[in-house]
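User:
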Amino acid sequence: MLTFVGLGLYDERSITVEGRDALRRADRAFAEFYTSRLVGTSVPDLEAHHGVDIAVRDRAGVERDPTPILDAAAEGDAVFLTAGDSMISTTHVDLRLRAIDRGIDTRVIHGVSAASAASGLTGLQNYRFGKAVTLPFPRAHGGDAVPASVVESVASNRDRGLHTLVYLDIKVDDCRGADAGETYMAADRAAELLAEEWPDRLAVAVARAGSPDPVVVADRLSALADRSFGDPLHLLVIPGEIHHVEADALRTLAGAPADLLPDD
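Assistant: Predicted structure:
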């Protein structure tokens, strides 16, 4: 059996009770933290809290050489851990399909995702979000601006009145150390990049969703670029057409300026 367990958004306690029980019963535990990670804990702390040993796999160890994971699942009960919800990333779907191809039973225990948290913290209605995008570091795509695909997706969503969830790039080289080799795009840097295209557009910065002290701030992209939002992880939301209840939420929960919101 291969069970995919989402760890939630922040620390070793963010996992669901069902996920915790599956993790503690498993014969082997694997994890990846290159798509995202829990910034409120470390792998050693996660292991100590749950009383398990966790084999952390890098991207190549999941996508190109998943054999150790699949062999463990074929021989016993294995869990595969990710931050957030396990099935948000296509790399995890691919691993599940590989397991099924080998005749291995699979199961998914969902965790809280950034997508659901972004809607809940901002007050923007979840069914009014369009296609999500990832904003990469300029060096990651060899450019010095926002990729055309990101601009096109945001514009397309806006044309349909839909909100855009903007995931911010993360580069983690060594997930066992709390600070080793980690780089996270901050919301102010993301706003700075996007403000080159839309300086006066309303956006919402969300920092540390799932933590005891999340930060939610709505303002023009140019204004968000001049603020600091503290420790990671961060994301941005670019609203489309705003319902009056959403406007009230952005005003109350995120301090959105009145002149950027529709009239009541």
